[in-house]
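Hi P.,

Sorry for the delay on this. The queue was packed all week, but I finally got your sequence through. Input first:
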Amino acid sequence: MEANINKRDIDEAVADVCIQIIKEPLSYFSEADVQQMLVEELRKIKPISKLYPTSVRKGKDSKGTFSTSLLHREYGGGEGKRIDVVILDPDDAKKINDPNLTTNKKYLDPVYAFELGTEKTADAFKHVRNDLGKLSKCVKKKNGAGYLIHFYKDNTQARTGTNRRKNTEEKIERVFKQAFNDIDIMTKQAIGTEQANKYANVKILAILLRTYRDQKKIRGKCRIFNGQKWIPTNISRDDLLRKAILKQLA
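Then the structure:
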């Protein structure tokens, strides 16, 4: 029953969260905050706001069964892995026969899955590679999709032209930008060259934010990776931000 949940609605919810963060970058402290913001926005989608019946009975010989949300955080992805946020298929929810939200001890393949990251990620290369691997393996539904969404918030106050600013830009290039510039290489490392076609089911959104500098004007406060380049996007134009974000999620 995948058609009950429209991907366009999912994309719009993701765009709403991203625009909020772009315009107010202090709205998150950590990845957990971004997770919470995303979950709150996704719950506004009507099919996701409901509870759905499972096959877990409320007691011995009881005809009643427990219900569950389709939306979960840190859901099992197999092999000891966890997925940041998942949306399950209503038909699959009916098959759940264990309180741990599994069917015959196996976690369900979500319709949609999300892996998130922020500048506090210790190793962006490893994080992105692992996220790609998890998303490509767990999202197996015909009309499903995985979402890899990473933010980097530049908190350095140094002005343009200073040595500290130069060092900061070099660090951003090294620890964040390059992880996405080399995305094709990492895709092959994550899921194997022969399996790389699965990567098409994973939507990648990487956003660089220039939070604050000790100067009056800052060019390129928001840059969104379009798969090849980091494109400056006007933060005062919600329509342009939405267009750029949705393009990456299409």
